[in-house]
Amino acid sequence: MTIQKRIEAGDYAPGAWLPTERALAQEFSVDRSGIRSALAQLEEQGLITREPGRRPWVTQRGDQRSRNVDTIVGASPAPKPLRSIVAVLPQHPKHPASLFILHGINMALRVADAPYRLQVFDTNGDSDSAAVELEKRTLEAVLSEGAAGVIIWQIGSESTLPQLIALEALGVPVVFIDRYPEGHRCDYVGVDNQSAIEDAVAYLHSLGHTRIAHLTTDEPSTAVHERREGYVEAMTALGMPPRPDWTFVLMRKNIRYVRNEAAVRAAFDQFFGSPEPPTAVITMNDALAHYFMHEAESRGKTVPADFSIIGFDDVERHSPRPATLTTLHQPFDKMGRRAAMLLLERLANPGKDREKQHILMSAPLVIRSTCRSLENAHTDV
């Protein structure tokens, strides 16, 4: 239960002292600066009073105080002012995911005629450390300035989790999109990554492929981990347990949006330098698939004549050029819309401590021209 919910439920009665900052920090597993930011927000809402040298104490609730004033002066309640829903996500200029997620969020708010404005924070940085720092500063600003709710494509993992926990302690609902902090009880909207990769493996197996490689990264993301687990489990279930040299992990410190020629070159060398090279490759995302195909072409190998390949995201559907990559489709627009709907549900029922929801959408296989059957070497699929 959050501090705000405890106040609203009467667990912290008017005039009662709040626990010490140290006790709150230990309870919510955040540092004291995060607690101070949360207390500042509670003070702005009129829920607590703070004075130098004294512990904060509970004052009259802001909504109750407003109703009392309206009753005394006989005035009609003023219309509720617009409050902000904050979207925190990286907006990479070459990747359309954020654009369509934001479109989905906007559509959900418009259809619901919700009394909220959407405030967008871009956490795209020139390096991973810069992106994490941008995310941290953004969340600290939200803690300081306030928001009705937050939708976040989290980059910082454990680095920015304390700020998110502090927001939740204030009663600000947070919905994670695409990935979420492992082990953290939260609302989340994404795709069923594991089942999607299992479908990709099954499709390649149906074409006669038994040596299937996986090209991924070491990003500490649940999406990445789930895709890797799906690959291992599907291969094992089909009696083709993957060999170590059929998996290549690009180190995150060497890449930014997976564009690093040396890293992809090393993956190619590992796969095709093997005594039994793979006949097909499943990549963690579409960008990796395209970089790998470019490297293969520079080495004299073409797709699908020399190997088949499947990506993940389906970003080519937004290109004016004909799409060619067989891939797994992420419904970014629908993800954004569902995340906003879930957030609105939370905002409409602030007193309910309901179970957190994990909403998984399907990522169906989109078959194009980068896979072929091994049973008929002249047939492209």
Report on the architecture of this protein.
It is elongated and about 80 Å long. 41% of the residues lie in helices and 16% in strands. Strand 5 (149-152), helix 7 and strand 6 form a beta-alpha-beta unit. The longest helix is centred in the middle third of the chain and has 18 residues, at 128-145. It starts with a helix and ends in a 15-residue tail after the last strand. By secondary structure, it is of the alpha/beta class. The protein has helices spanning 3-9, 21-28, 32-44, 62-73, 97-112, 128-145, 161-169, 193-206, 222-237, 261-272, 286-298, 332-348, and strands at residues 48-49, 57-58, 83-89, 116-122, 149-152, 174-177, 187-191, 212-217, 247-250, 280-283, 308-313, 326-329, 358-361, 365-366. Among the domains are: 1-79, Orthogonal Bundle (Arc Repressor Mutant, subunit A), CATH 1.10.10.10; 193-330, Rossmann fold (3-Layer(aba) Sandwich). It has a six-stranded parallel sheet, with helices on both faces. Helix 5 crosses helix 12, helix 6 packs parallel to helix 7 and helix 10 crosses helix 11 (286-298).
